[in-house]
Write a structure and sequence with these properties.
Blueprint (H helix, E strand, L loop, with lengths): L14 H6 L2 E4 L11 E5 L2 E5 L4 H12 L3 E6 L4 H10 L4 E3 L5 H11 L7 E5 L5 H6 L2 E4 L5 H6 L2 E2 L8 H12 L3 H11 L12
Parallel strand pairs: 1-4, 1-6, 4-5, 6-7, 7-8
Antiparallel strand pairs: 2-3
Helix pairs in contact: 2-7
Length: 201
């Protein structure tokens, strides 16, 4: 399906596989974040904070704008994850504190008449293994554990929480042949798509 390269350089996803993908799933801790969790008290209430990567967020939006479903699948229940998903306009968030990701994902897919054969998933650690074994396009972040990397068709050059999700999004959209048009549309929406001319002096 693709060349697996731990460096991430020169990765190519088979366009036929990429075109079959309708859903791109992402783990949270260690994929959309660097895996760190900040715990403390705010007004005497327990609070959990996570550090998300802004360019990753744009990558997820690019997938949505290209017509793909983006789903977040986490083995932790976290208000920080819920807030980040809401900020990105991602309605589909599975948070299972038992880390039973595969059954939860299968239920979500079944309700939409979709299958694992139409899924890509980006993971980093052992709770992601059952999903990665079953999806059409398993992706590991650069700092994933050995068991996850062994299953991955693609290993990103970037680490989790530091651009890995953005890299995965770009690879999928480039393989589908739509990355350039999505970038152009994004820039045009912001009035930056037209080529600038330098006025004569």
């Amino acid at each position: 399906m693709a060349r697996r390269e731990s460096s991430g350089a020169g990765l190519v996803i088979d366009p036929a596989v990429a075109r079959r993908i309708a859903v791109v799933g992402f783990d949270v801790d260690g994929v959309l974040t660097d895996g760190g969790v900040y715990l403390g008290l705010v007004a005497d209430h327990a609070a959990e904070c996570k550090r998300f990567h802004v360019p990753d967020g744009l990558g997820l939006k690019m997938l949505q704008w290209a017509g793909l479903h983006v789903i977040i699948v986490s083995g932790r229940v976290s208000e920080a994850t819920t807030l980040r998903a809401r900020e990105l306009g991602i309605p589909d968030v599975i948070q299972d504190d038992g880390a039973q990701k595969l059954p939860a994902l299968e239920r979500w897919l079944g309700a939409r008449r979709l299958t694992l054969a139409q899924c890509a998933f980006v993971g980093d650690d052992l709770p992601d293994v059952p999903v990665l074994k079953r999806v059409a396009l398993p992706i590991a972040v650069h700092n994933a554990c050995a068991e996850v990397k062994a299953l991955a068709t693609v290993v990103t050059g970037a680490e989790g929480g530091r651009g890995a999700a953005r890299e995965a999004a770009e690879l999928i959209l480039k393989a589908r042949g739509v990355w350039d048009e999505r970038v152009e549309a994004y820039l045009n929406d912001r009035g930056d798509g037209a080529e600038r001319t330098i006025p004569a002096r």
